[in-house]
Amino acid sequence: MLRTLYIRDYAIIDELEVEFQSGLNILTGETGAGKSIIVGALKLIAGERASADSIRSGGVKAIIEGVFDDIPLKDILNLLDEHDLPEEPVLIMRREITKTHSRAFINDTPVKLTLMRQVASKLIDLHGQHEHQSLLRVNTHLDLIDGFGHLADQRSSYRSTYQEVVSLTRELEELSMRQNHLDATQERLGFEISEIDTINPQEGEEDQLQNELSRLENAEQLYNITASLHSMLYAQENSTTEQLALALSQLQDLAYIDPALKESSEEINQAYISVKEISQSLQEYSSNIEFNPSRLEKIRERLGDFDILKRKYGGSLNAVLDYRKEIGKEYARLADNDMARSTQEQHIEQTKQLLSQKAHDLSNQRHRVATQIESSITSEFVDLGMAAGKLKVQIQQHHDSSGWITPANKQSKDLMHYKAFSHGMDQVEFLITTNMGEELRPLARVASGGEISRIMLAIKRVLAQSGGLPIMVFDEIDVGISGSIAQKVGNSMADLARHHQIITITHLPQIAALAHAHYVVEKRVTDGRTKTMIRRLSHDESVEHVAKLIAGGEITETMRESARELMQSQEKP
């Protein structure tokens, strides 16, 4: 609740501090006394933009500070923690406005105005006659439905799955971007692998082919010379082997005479054997020489293919083979990226199916809750004198051919998908009519005046059960109403004050009489300067002011008695 409000040098306020109470806080006072100025100061600590013109004449800096206690709202504590702000027993929100700039503070720590606005939006609701407060903002209607229906856990579960789809989709986009970049590389590597594998060179094959090429190119010369050598060494008359045989025979005869020649005889014998083996080898070699022009041409072509690969991929056949190994690994890695993308797509589709199920379940619950809200608020309209009033909770979905939410009924002819939002598949808006025969219109388009005040009050009473917005501020909610309707509005506000702190400006005695704490706002002239003051009234003073509201002029004892009766007869929070 708002415990204290301090204002200095703002508009016609010199300096004031007021301590509010729980329940229903009523502000009364003459027109122009500055009641709405106090509400305007509250708006500044709720994050509204400030104007340098709001600084009191002669002042240097306007200061507005609100001290809040009993802050059980988890969302606020999470916001403070998220921005590394100290968590204190009380929440202090302060605005300082100079001629050149405005500064915002939470618990004496400078913060951006957007953060102050975020915190205030979860804490305080200001209702003015000509403003768009929380209930007039369409984006709050869905939150109110979920709060009333206690759907926070279900919505959180949906949001977790939604965030998972967002994350998976982002990862897929990154894989796709990378794949687009690598497609050209993959195509080039595929071509190179195909080119090398088509030729399919083997390790050591080039040397083997070079040797075979040399033999085929010189086959005639090899044949002629080996045949000639065979003839010289063995086949012709007086061949080398014949001469060695003759020499061996003679040396063997001499070795019988002189054993010293035996060693020479053995050496001649070894030479004879060696030459004979060589001649046989030459004969065999000569007979195996191949004259094959077709094979010769094939070898030349293959070695030509090798030369092409060597020029393109490293200069040697070993370098070509090493390069093939490298690009094979790279190509496999790129193929893995393709597989990863395919796997990611399957994962996304599975997660979208789960998201769709949760979205439809959440939407069904919202429709159930909407029916309850429609009935309850329509009943409130009757109690507030709008018997023809009716509220409709419009829940719609956006068709989107590429939406993440699939139809709930797979057999349905309507296969259109729906757009997914972080809060679900639904867009919610309150529609209303207050007169018989009139069509329902968006709540934000209902005319201002007493009617809109009662509409706001009815909606807030019903939705107050959700536990949100513990502080509500009404700036002259009673405009345009009187008599029995005023009494009904007062009773409704008093009931609302059982669970919320209410701060309201009123001119009606029926409402003022219900005050748990009654304050009067007055304008005084001191030292030639006009100042706005505020003070809490005692019980007797409150009777006097309620009587004044009843009389509208001179107060009589009869009016005072009427005020006492009105205050005693009303059911207070």
Describe, in plain words, how this protein is organized in 3D.
This protein has 16 helices and 15 strands. It is rod-shaped and about 180 Å long. The mean pLDDT is 86. The two termini are 16 Å apart. The chain is α/β, with parallel strands linked by helices and 573 residues long. Strand 1 (2-10) and strand 2 form a beta hairpin.
Quick overview of this protein structure:
This protein is an alpha/beta fold and 573 residues long. It has helices at residues 35-45, 74-82, 113-121, 138-148, 152-199, 205-217, 219-235, 240-257, 262-288, 293-313, 317-383, 450-463, 483-496, 509-512, 539-551, 557-569, and strands at 2-10, 13-19, 24-28, 62-68, 91-97, 102-106, 109-111, 124-127, 390-396, 427-433, 441-442, 471-475, 501-505, 517-526, 529-536. The chain starts with a strand and ends with a helix.
Provide the β-strand percentage band.
15-25%
Radius of gyration of CA atoms, rounded to a whole number: 51 Å
Number of helices: 16
Q: For the residues shown, what is the average pLDDT? A: 86
Tell the overall outline.
Answer: rod-shaped
Number of strands: 15
What are the segments in which pLDDT stays under 50 over at least 5 consecutive residues?
none
Write out the strand line-up for the largest beta sheet, numbering strands in chain order: 2-1-4-5-6-7
Structural class: alpha/beta
